[in-house]
Amino acid sequence: MTAESGTIHASAVAIADRGVVIRGRSGSGKSALVLSLLTLATQAMLVADDRVLLSAQGGRLLAAAPAVLAGKLEIRGLGIVQRPYVSPVAVDLVVDLLPLAECPRLPEQHELEAALAGIVVPRVFIAVGAADAPFRVLAALSLFHNKSLI
């Protein structure tokens, strides 16, 4: 578990009433995963792309868009586009995009959570470039929160 607060290099999306923070190295596909989720999930909205403001409030982790990036999403090959967005949102899941060799196949219990801004949130690992990444995000939200989004 890592403790982070303030502005982090990540992207975030809201799906129905749940917030998802997507972390990963530069070029790992954070923006592409956000675009996939926006396209796939009818109730998905952009929160922030490239940078996310994290804070703790009332025992919940909140993710918000920095003002300068609000509503902006990078689509590789097309550029930066303006999208409707919502900010802030309560975070219900952290997605860590990692090379396949670094993703635990059967994660230990302690690996299924991340501490951000002092708040523990469920976490899932997804391999960079995984074709089923958006489906894994929706499945993780459903499993961790007992409500189907698929």
Characterise this structure.
With 150 residues, the protein is of the alpha+beta class. It has one domain: 3-Layer(aba) Sandwich (Rossmann fold), CATH 3.40.50.300. Helices cover 16% and strands 43% of the residues. It contains two helices and ten strands; from the N terminus they run ββαββββββββα. It has helices spanning 30-40, 133-145, and strands at 6-15, 18-24, 44-48, 51-57, 60-64, 72-75, 79-82, 89-98, 113-116, 119-127. The longest helix has 13 residues, at 133-145. It is globular, with a radius of gyration of 14 Å.
Whole-number mean pLDDT: 92
Q: Helix and strand succession?
A: EEHEEEEEEEEH
What's the overall geometry? globular
- CATH architecture label: 3-Layer(aba) Sandwich
CATH class: Alpha Beta
Question: What is the count of DSSP helices, taking H or I runs of 4+ residues?
Answer: 2
Major sheet strand order: 1-2-8-5-4
Number of strands: 10
Low-confidence stretches: none
Q: Fraction of residues in helices?
A: 10-25%
What name goes with the CATH superfamily? P-loop containing nucleotide triphosphate hydrolases
Overall domain count: 1
Distance between the termini: 28 Å
Output the CATH topology.
Rossmann fold
